[in-house]
What does this fold into?
Amino acid sequence: MDHSIIYLDEVVSTNDYARDILRKGKPAEGTVVAAGFQSAGRGQDGNTWESEAGQNILITMILYPGFLDVSKQFIMSMTIALGIVDFLEDYLPDDILFIKWPNDIYAS
It folds into this structure.
């Protein structure tokens, strides 16, 4: 898996940027789009959300999980979210991390 990281100070949405990259070609699996600020982040069902500049980890990772049936890809999203929380628990106080499924992780 590639370890390419595209960092943008500001972007409309890391998902939109990754989608544009995919329309132009096939970037290496594992390519990460990261941003310091998203001006129009999106959630499920058309919801929008805003974040403070430099206060969040805003990333989209491009993966090609050909080994996993589309109907089961939520399992991969769930595994990644749980893994991130498990990692962060070593660095943050207990009981402040929450997952908003399918892929948002909050520390409060």
Summary: Strands lie at 5-8, 32-35, 41-42, 48-49, 58-61, 97-100, 104-107. The chain has a mean pLDDT of 88. The longest strand covers residues 5-8.
